[in-house]
Every structure is written in structure tokens, then in C-alpha cells.
Amino acid sequence: MAEADRKRQSKSEIVVVSALKDWSCAECGGGWSLLTMDDKGPLCLSCADMDHLVFLPAGDAALTRRARKASGLSAVVVRFSRARKRYERQGILVEEEGLERAEAECLADGDARERRRERERSRRAEHDLAFQAEMAAEIVRIFPGCPRDRADEVARHTGARGSGRVGRSAAGRAFDPGALRLAVAASVRHRDTGYDELLMSGVNRAEARLLVRDEVERILEEWGNP
Q1: Does the pTM of the predicted model rise above 0.85?
Q2: Cys bridge to 145: 36, 138, 215, 226, which one at CB 3.0-4.6 A?
């Protein structure tokens, strides 16, 4: 199958070699950086009637595909890699008009892709707002004494997409009471106790949490049973 693929490729592609060493054109005797093989031997692009083509480096698959399609004549440029012991594609030669047409099509597609990405961002933002509103409502249900603006703040913080916080865990997305309690406790710890000041004074995290634990539990109890 590999041999069949190579035969099909050789029939559909003109191959141009980027030379590693000096050579002479079989017709004009000149030596250039690019050559193609003919029955007479190696030919420069001028003698091979391809000197009007322009080089498009490899790297942009969509542009390459469209430029080849828009060009009546094209060729694949390869160069021998001494390290890998094989010929490797460097890009293609295409008609300048075809390349310009392909570039214009890709630019138009780029605008379309950006508009599609913007719509997707808007949909995700709407979904996130709805998700956070539901989470805030669930926090208030579990902790009736929690101020609504505080519940909204906790939901925005812990439910932010890509945050890796408890609100984005599987349990958080399912509004598991245990997960939401952890999120509210974290807010209380930072906002309503001296936890941050303890950390800034050099107390390690585990000890600081232990020192403020009773205060956190007291507030959670008040909010849970107002």
C-alpha cells in the first residue's frame, strides 16, 4: 500500500529539489538552488518552465491546499536531511495569482472563524452566568442566613470556568451540599476571620486553618440556622 501511495503521489505531483551541493543544469549549464529532474538530467526552474512560480513554505495546511487548488501549475519542494537520511517537504511552488487567491480565502475564513469563536464565547458566558445563579440559589437554600450578594460572590469565584476550584469539580457542578459547604467555608475563612493575616505573619497554612476553624464553624452554623 505504501508503494501504491508513492506511485499515485509521483503521478500527481511535480517534485523540485532544494540542492545541498553545486550542480549544473542539463540545458543552460547554470546552477541554482532549486532543480527538477528530466530525461536530460537536472534542470533549473527556468529551463523547466517553472521560474514564474513562487515559493510557499510549509506550515499552513489550509493555505497550501487552497494555493495548489488555485494554481494551474504547482510543485512540491523537498530537501534531503542528512540527519534523518530522507527527503523532507519544505513547501510548494505555486502561481502567484493562485497564492493571492488562497490568501484572500483564508483571510475571509479567518473572519468567519473569529465570529464563530465569539459566538461560542458568548454561549459559554451565558451558560456560566446561569450556572452561577443556580449555584448561588442553592447556597442560599443550604445557608438561609447567608446574604444573597455573598452567595453570588461565592458562586462567581468557585464556579469560574477553568478555575479548578471546588465549584467546577463534578460534585460542585452537581451542587453537592458538601462541595458547596467547602466553597462557603473558604469564603468565610478569608473574609470573616484573621486567616489571611495569620498567613502573612508567617503562620503555616495548616496551623492557621486550625486557629480559625471554630470561628468558621460558628458562622456557618449561624448561616445554616438563622
Answers
A1: no
A2: 226
